[in-house]
Amino acid sequence: MERAQQQTAPDGANGPATRPGTPPVDLELLVHGVGGTTPEEMLDDPCTVRITGDDTAAVFRRAADVDAEDRPEEYRDRPVPEAYVWCNLTSGNSARALWLLLLPFMVVNLAHWMRPATRGHHRTVRLYGLLVRLAGLSLTVLLVAAACEVALDLVAWQCAGVEACAARHSWLGFLSPAASGEGWWSLPGRRLALAALVPAALTYLLWYLSRRTWSAYESQPLPHRPEPDEQTGPTALGSPGFWYGRRLVARLRAAHTAAGLLTVAAAIVSPAARFDRGPGGSDVLDSLGRLLIAALCGTAAVVLWVVCRRGRSENRLDRELDEHLVRRLPLAALVLLALALPYAGWSRPGWQSAGRLSGDTAFGVIPLVQGLLVVVIAVVAHLLHRTPPPEPGSAGQTGAPAGRRAAMRGLGGPAVALLACALGGVMSGGVAQRVADWLDGTGSSIDGPPVLLTWQASVIPPLLVALLALVGWLSWRTWQLSRAERSTVQRDYPKEPADPATTRRIARTRAMAALTDRAPLLVAVVSATTLLLGAGALVGGLDTGKTPGEAAGHTYAVVRGAAETAQALGSWLIGLGFVLFVTWGRRAYKDASARRTIGILWDVGTFWPRAAHPFAPPCYAERAVPDLTWRMATWTQSTGGRLVISGHSQGSVLAAAAAWQLTPSVRKRVALLTYGSPLERLYGRWFPAYFGPAELGSLHREVARWRNLHRLTDPIGGPVRLPGDCGPDVDRAPLKDPLALGRTARHPLPAPVLGHSDYQADPAFAEERERLLAGLRPDVPGQRPEQAP
């Protein structure tokens, strides 16, 4: 299998126009979907050549088609296929496995883009983005606080300070006062200072990963627009700076890095300052501690100001960088951390480590702030949802309001933000609980993690019970829908004999595919249950200061037993989840197939730019969309040929985003063919402000032609559902799947149920592609698409 590794194409593939008097060739630019594939599979040829690009993302052609522009007479009846392969952007090398640790950051970043569609109300829109950015900042503080809990509290303060625990772990011998005979590192403050290197190193790792991906993704150059005065349509996806978040991500990275370092410094300074304020404390150290705390609070206020001050700038290409802020803010936090280390390590006679550090207060304040933020985000989202959305389609069209199909009536964003906070809490509690169990083999030598983490673990069993009840109800509804679909399946194959087994299989597949439309219900139930149970755990942990079993000690035995069971089972489940999480990440680090599975998750979750959290996995679309835009713009302008961009699944979303980035004159020379597309079914419902009816309607009017193919057996793709006359013009009637119910003369062997894959196998694909190309010809009127599959 041969693949040339050249960076520029031969004559004709990249730029030279065809000979005068010869009609230009047609081009079909294929964009694959989630999971990725190879150019050989996309082009159905073992010999492919890289036309342009690198090892991360590139455009390929068949070896026989490299010089197609020089032989236009051979391509009068068919287009030249090209394949854009972008799968390595999300599932490339083994370092992608580390992105699992960034999952809460990715989820909260999605919440930023889920705001409801609205007309005007720019201040409310900015408030929504500000609140989500604050929720993202709280997740950074939570993650670093969990690292401080493990390293400073459990290891350095509790285990190293107790002879029984330190004796079981020889590597802690030099920190234990009993084992080292009051050695230099045995003082509590010096143990804390040494352990602080762990969360500080974690903060540096997050900063380094964010900066490296920022240089590779957010700093991609965009095509120059020769027509700056022309409108790009009503959607923000067509704005010049939408896929260029270099300045915002740099500012957020500086603020979050500083917040992480300040969290570590506060974890060191607080216990020492508390002792200095006591009877045995020093007045000089007490004054120094107060100055450090004041400096920490002042720098934290600057961090909040930076996060709140500036959001995304999309209307123009913002190439500036706030160098003074990006460098000085983390440096100031690092200096405070460096000052906190000797302050905490200063000798304090009589200071001994006993009990826990002040983790209960910290882990109580963080979820309280997160809960309040989620509630306010929900109020703002509801206000935006109630305002009139943009008109769907052009003048004179009628249809359903844009917000009617929005997920959870516009509350999808706050629900997802809540799930991000809950996921961060589960990950933090899981790490702390597992480390405590590992350090304390007998379960009696140390106090363990904060009580509030135990309360949070105890809510997992009732949450799973509610989830299982919902899954049971959905299974029953799916079974009902499957029975109802059998008669519909039989009517779809009127000329074939009945085949009950195949009919049941197709009906079951259709019913399972319809579960995608139930996702908002699932998210609503899980988020509402999480909010209620989390609020109860927060009240119980802060009010009683005891574990659930201890708090129920004076009630009925049944209640006490249920509380203790939930506590033990939740602790076991959260530990099991953490072990599975680490195991999956380790397997993905070594196994390419497992890494590809994680890549599918990132394909869906990292399409959007990093607007709320700079430590989230990078947005691959900030590389893929400029790639596609450059290719379409340069090819159409240099050859004058017709172009169909053909996107499958997530590739259709990239294709639409790239089409919005084209200038209007180039956009009119491009046709769009989408199949298995989640543009309306997923993106239109969950991201209505960017893929609502008004935005998709504008795309239909601005490209030359657009056709969309879907199947009822497809769990991801669906119709675009444009209102009025635009709907039938874009959506073809659902394709038959399978092509034959049983054995026929044309299909002598059983036909498979394809679902979301292999749309090119259907004859309708080539038929619609030919109609799109014919519609692009200036001298031939386009045929009106048929509605029969």
TrEMBL record:
UniProt superkingdom: Bacteria
Classification via SUPFAM superfamilies: alpha/beta-Hydrolases (SSF53474)
Keywords on record: Membrane, Transmembrane, Transmembrane helix
Record InterPro entries: AB_hydrolase_fold
Transmembrane segments: 127-147, 192-209, 254-275, 287-308, 329-346, 366-384, 411-432, 452-476, 519-539, 569-586
Region (Disordered): 1-44
Protein name per the record: Integral membrane protein
